[in-house]
Amino acid sequence: MMTGFRLNLSPLKEPLGFVKLVEWLTAIFAFGSCSGFSGKNIISLLCGDGRNDTLDANFHYPFRLSAVPLIEGNATLCNQSATTTHMVGDSASSVEFFVGVAIVCFLYSMVALLVYLGYMHVYKDSDFGPIFDFLLTAILVFLWLVCSSAWAKGLQNVKDATDTEGISNTLAVCRGANVTCEVTEFASMRPLNISVVFGYLNMLVWAGNAWFVYKETRWHSQKFSTQPGPGRQQVPAPI
């Protein structure tokens, strides 16, 4: 059996290779749209004496909000003393899990494309390649479902912690008399929303690809080889 590299671009014209290329691209969009995110909300404190104060809430990947200070050191806001205060929440585990799955899929798609385009003759000559490909694809479908759901919940926690209600509950000065706190400028969460969409899109793409990979396994070929052909009748054994 020849095992050398043989470049053949024809698999890209078939669902098996083309979908793998799509998976590679969608994985890039998934982790690229959230891993470099940085945003800032501007909080306005409306004091009872007509004076206004402002605070900046800067947050970024991996969204360890409990480490983000709203007030550093001792400060005076609306004629009230305020001590160091941090935001509330930590979505690092969910977003890092999401990004980790996306990077694994990105790398695996590249390796699979290399095999499809250069070693397809080896891939199809053995049972191990297609079966391993199918099992790993099925596992990644499940991981996309889990990590996308976890990150969707984590993103909602980030939104809740950085909106007006979340900030007001965090800052003690906002609970004082004649003081109103309001987030007047919001960071755009569009890239983070897009990352969640691409997470579920990846799940669907990988689920579809699982069928095309399954067709390459011996399980699929055995299923059809054992089915009787049309019009074929069984001949009774002679007595």
UniProtKB/TrEMBL annotation:
User: Its principal location?
Assistant: membrane
Protein location? Membrane
Membrane topology per the record? Answer: Multi-pass membrane protein
Bilayer-crossing regions:
97-119, 131-152, 194-214
Q: Does the keyword Transmembrane helix apply?
A: yes
Q: From what superkingdom does this record's organism come?
A: Eukaryota
Q: Show the PROSITE patterns listed in the entry.
A: MARVEL (PS51225), PROKAR_LIPOPROTEIN (PS51257)
Question: Pfam family of this protein, just one?
Answer: MARVEL
Task: Please state every residue range assigned to the domain named MARVEL.
Answer: 11-218
Task: Write the record's keywords in alphabetical order, separated by commas.
Answer: Glycoprotein, Membrane, Transmembrane, Transmembrane helix
Looking at the UniProt record for this protein, which Gene Ontology cellular component terms does it annotate, in alphabetical order? synaptic vesicle membrane
Family per record: Belongs to the synaptophysin/synaptobrevin family.
The identity of this protein, by name, is Synaptophysin-like protein 1
